């Protein structure tokens, strides 16, 4: 569970840093008499929204995916990787749908999905990022444990 919380925190930081880099407008490109957020303001704003989603949506999704993965019992590493990527993609879209449904107070169902397509894409990207950070941290932790045992 500690690994999943750590993964959620690292993933949300990486995801929000990426969004802030893409959204930031450098000082040279600022229009006069217009307001622009600083890079740090963008980062904090994205973390306020993405952090809780990673913790409240990502961790339970990861637990459910692990339970499903154990039931399927794939032994092929490539098959397991593609299963996990697809499962996290679907989980990201579902968590995004729930978030949009809560934020819109149920009006999402009457709106066209294509109006919110970018949110679904970002949710899928965030979920796949979570999976890859989880794999990286698991690998690093395994190497750390091996190094500690050898001493």
Automatic annotation (TrEMBL):
This is DUF2975 domain-containing protein. Keywords: Membrane, Transmembrane, Transmembrane helix. The chain crosses the membrane at residues 44-68, 80-102, 117-141.
């Amino acid at each position: 569970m500690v690994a999943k919380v750590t993964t959620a925190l690292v993933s949300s930081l990486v995801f929000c840093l990426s969004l802030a880099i893409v959204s930031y407008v450098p000082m040279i490109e600022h229009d006069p008499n217009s307001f622009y957020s600083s890079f740090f303001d963008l980062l904090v704003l994205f973390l306020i929204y993405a952090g809780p989603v990673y913790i409240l949506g990502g961790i339970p999704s990861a637990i459910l995916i692990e339970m499903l993965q154990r039931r399927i019992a794939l032994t092929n590493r490539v098959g397991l990787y593609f299963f996990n990527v697809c499962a996290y993609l679907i989980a990201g879209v579902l968590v995004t749908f729930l978030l949009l449904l809560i934020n819109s107070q149920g009006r999402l169902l009457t709106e066209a999905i294509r109006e919110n397509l970018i949110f679904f894409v970002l949710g899928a990207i965030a979920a796949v990022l979570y999976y890859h950070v989880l794999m990286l941290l698991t690998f690093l932790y395994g190497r750390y444990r091996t190094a500690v045992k050898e001493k």
